[in-house]
Structure formats: C-alpha cells, structure tokens
Amino acid sequence: MSDTQTPQTQQRILITSALPYINGVKHLGNLAGSMLPADVYARVMRLLGHDVLYICATDEHGTPAELAAAEAGITVKAYCDQMHEAQRESGAAFDLSYDWFGRSSSPATAALTQSFSSTLEKNGLIEARISKQVYSNADGRYLPDRYVEGTCPNCAFEAARGDQCDNCGKLLDPIDLIDPYSSVSGSHDVEIRETEHLYLKQSDMSDRLRGWVNEQTSWPALATSIALKWLDEGLLDRSITRDLDWGIPVVDVEGNPRPGFDGKVYYVWFDAPIAYIGATQDWAAETGGEWEKWWRTDKGADETTYVQFMGKDNVAFHTLSFPTTLMGSGEPWKLVDTLKAFNWVTWYGGKFSTSSKRGVFMDQAIALAPSDTWRWHLMANAPEGSDAAFTWEEFQSSVNSDLANVLGNFVNRITKYTASKFDAAVPDGGEAGEDEAWVVDEVNTRLALMVSYFEAREFRKALSEMRAIWAAGNEYLTRAAPWTHYKTDVDQAAVGVRMGLNLAALFGIIAQPIIPNAADNILDALGIPDKHRGWSGFKGWETGLPVGLRITSPDVLFAKIEDDEVAAWTAQFGGGGPVE
RNA sequence: GGUGGGGUAGCUCAGCUGGUUAGAGCGCAGGACUCAUAAUCCUGAGGUCGAGAGUUCAAGUCUCUCUCCCACUACCA
C-alpha cells in the first residue's frame, strides 16, 4: 500500500545544515533548527536505501572569531582549532551522523572562494568601490557596524548600535552616530576612514534569480516569500570583503594576490556557503569519494537532489546570495532543490541568551540526559510552524511518557513476559485472529503516513505517527491479553507474545533515525541482524522474527526524569520564567 | 516603519483549496487490567478558535480594521 513496501528508485541526496559559527558551543536552538533535523532526514533517507551525503562544517571566519580569540588570549587559528574540536565532539555526543564535518578555513574552501571571485569578476559581476568605515585606533581594527555604538541621531538614546538603535528601532549608519565609540574596548578614539572593497553586483543577477525562484515548486512558502520580497525591493550590490586579518586573502581577476588588499579578506557570508562545496572536496580527498557527482551538473549532479536545512534567518543567504555566486560563475554548479527553514526554540517563551545565562548549551545538555532523550524531545517539538518553547516540564513529559512509558515499557513488558513464560524464545503455536488483523492494519496505515511525513520533512507529524505506532502496541497487548489466555490456552497466549515481539522489533527499526542508541539496544536484544534493519522491509514485519529465535530483555531503555531533577535543573539554569 | 510567521482546550501544538457535534499529546477526573520502569488500556470533563466588522446557505478557515508576541530588514553570523 505504501511506497515503503515496494522497491524504490534510489535517489542521490545531498544534505547540508547551516554551518554552526565557531564562536562557542551551540545551544539547543541551533541544534534543533538545523543540525539535528538534517541528521534525522539523512538517517531516514539512508534507511530508505538512498545514496546520501550529509555535509556540515564550522564557519570560522569573521570578526566575532577574532574577538573571541583575543579574549581567550590565543591566536585565532588556535581558537578555531579548539572550538572546531569542541563542536565536533558535541556533535558526536548527540549522534549527528555527518558524512563529513569540515571547516570553512580549509584550503579547499579558500581555493574555491578565490576561484569564484576571479570568475565572477571576469564575468563582470564584481567591482571594487570605496566606502567609509569606522576605524578604532585603540583596537587597531576596523569595526563592523554592530560593534560601533554611540548616541542615536534619531532619538538621542546613548547606547545605540551602529546598525540599529535598540531604543527607537531605526536602522542606522554608524557614521551618523553622535559621539561614536568602540563597543569592543569602549574607546572613543575612533575615526572614519575610506577603504576599498569588492562588491558583488547582485542587482545584475536579479532577473535570473527571479526566474529561478519562480521555477521552484518544492520550496516552503516561507522561503519563496522571503526571496521574492528581497527581489521586489531590489537587490543591492553587496560588499564581499572586509578589513580583517583572519579569513581568505582577496585575489584579482587572474587569481593572483590583489594589490592594495593586504589586510583584507573575503566576508564570511561569501565563503561560508562555498564551504559546503569545500567540505565535500575534503570529504572526497579523505575517503576516496567523488565530490563532483554531488556538485557539478556536468558530472552527474543533475541527478542529485540537494536539500538544505537552516534557521529562518539564513533563508535570504541560501536563496539569493549563494545562488548569485553559483549562477554568476557561469559554471555548472548544483543549486539547491529544496530547503527546510526552522523557527527558533525559545527558553520558556523568551530568547536563549548567552550573556544572561538563559538556556541550555549542547555540552551542558548532554551531561544532564542522554542524547536520545534530547533528540526525541527536540524533534517531536521542532519549531516548524512557529517558535517553539522549551521547558523542563515538557522535556520531562516527553521523556517519561513517550520514551519510558509508551516505548520503553512496551519492550520491557513483552520481553520480560517472554522470558518468564516462553523460555526467552519466539513461541510457536496458535493462529492470528481479529486482534492481530486490527494491529497490523493500524500499524501499516500509520507506517505509510509516517514515511510520507519524513519525506516531506514534517518532523512533528512524523514523530506523532511514530508514537501512535508504539501506543498501538500497548493497545494490542491489552486486547490480546496473553497473560489471561495463558491460564487456559497457551497457544492463544503464544500468538499475542509472538506479535508483541514482532511489534517490538518494528518499533526499534522505525526508531533508529531519532533515538539511535535505544533503537540499537532493542534490535540487539531481539537479535535483529543489520541487514534487516532497513526501512525497505516493513512488509511482513508481523511475522519477521523466526519462531524459536532466542531473545533477551534489554536493560532499562530510558530512565525517567524525576521531579527533583527538574527542580534542580530549573534552579541551575534559571528556567521557570522570563528573566528581566 | 517595511516584510514574513504566529495568537485554537490548564500546557505544547494539528487543523489542506471555507461544509456534519473544532482535534492530538501532556495534565486532570473516573473505571479496567496486573505481563511491565506505580507502567498500560478505556471513558470523561475542559475551548464565545486574540478583538470587532464584513462576504457567504455555511468561516478557526476568505476580506477589512484593531491588538499582542516573534523573526528578518542587507557590515553579527
């Protein structure tokens, strides 16, 4: 009945999640809004038998990295080395199944970035212009707009940022601030200097971009509307270089070091998306894979489906800026086919904030509860339609009710009962009846729905179906009641136990993309070989386990979260209500 | 200010191109069962669908006005 039960055409699917910035360990919102859903999608597509490549990397350039390194008292290179390793480890701790977790600072990305730059310039899409920037003598650096503060020329607010006044909301230009100072050092010894930068002439690409956007049929409305809005307002040419030391050196049209551009590098938003490609090249170099079939439409990538995952703030860059780079090169690069944008996870309805210590970061979270529990909760409550509030109470509820009670207890009760009454083996005897027909139909209907939701990247709905499938197992056991039949008709009891064990196996198989560790525990306990753990074999699941197969009962799959733990976490992390 | 998203049961959220008594999970109340991590199963009580007006035989679903929250607004990424 579903496409999961008939052989599918294998697809080649390239998946990227927005690159996490190097500036610190990421919080749960970053995890839930790009890396984790991309991972789940990658795992599902692999289980369905597709050829999947999931690429991610740290985004390492830009002013914040330099400032963070300075604060830590180490070089930017050393800082990025440390933080890349920290992020790689926290990704591994959350079981993110990257095929490659690279770095935007890799030589491959630098070479690609410079190549794109000279090609775009050759095509007349880049030109040098002079602009005015704020320079801080005390800091010895140019300051991005956001790092310049001063008195707002509009409302006289004294701590207005150079890009926007937090008091009156007006968009500002830092050179208009009254009595400007550096927010980095607090120094008022700042001046306005003229500086030369490269501009990407996005305005020249506007018509091509519009045509391409209008061709897209699989983008969510959010993405299309954001892209068209920018196009309607008229794309501005965008500067793609900055006055910084840390980054990729600027080249001329021939690809040689560009005269007069010492101390300037490419803007991080120019090179970060290119790092998707660079990281793929690094993956290929390391593993012997072919990168071109994923990215070059003249080398097979025309058969690749490219899916991007990101937060809603990233949509414009992925639907306009990066496509400008790729299309403007005139080279046969693969463009995104579809993208999934997420809203934010909020902390009790407010923002996550590092400075006011609001929220939970990945390294802290994994110390509190296992990866599986976070993965389940964050995906079951993914911020798909709007921002989604994180609360400890909801987290506790997800873990205890969905995982421990509905799934964990089901596996436990059926395996323990098998051990006590049927010698820990899949029993023979009896024949399937009404109860079995009911549960098979119920589960098959929901399986088809679940898979179609995953394919549509509707994670909340997919997980809701998964949970309903687990719940159907409990309902089945209540109906079949093998413990009652056992007293008078052991064969009848055997039917219920056999079905129960087959349900447990199915539950483990479908749970793999979300809670891989618990799923493995279940499948190992039931002796399911790896080759039977894929998602092409749902058909016939109800009789999948061979009669006589010895099974064990897994250790407690999910420890419950106690009320006193919630109280302690709330105290530790300041949850429980908005903070001023 | 502009653009986009959102305001639906105590809580977190579904509700497609308008159509029978507005749904789910959690929580709560009652009952059943006893294989199981005091788990599970069944039943039930909870909503003037942010406010107001309009279109329509019919609106949570379309239009207008108002209001509250969030994001983006191009040099933070």
TrEMBL record:
Its main location: cytoplasm. GO terms for cellular component: aminoacyl-tRNA synthetase multienzyme complex; cytosol. It is found in: Cytoplasm. It holds the Pfam family Anticodon_3. Keywords: Aminoacyl-tRNA synthetase, ATP-binding, Cytoplasm, Ligase, Metal-binding, Nucleotide-binding, Protein biosynthesis, Zinc. It is an enzyme of class 6 (ligase). Monomer. Belongs to the class-I aminoacyl-tRNA synthetase family. MetG type 1 subfamily. This is Methionine--tRNA ligase. It comes from Algimonas arctica.
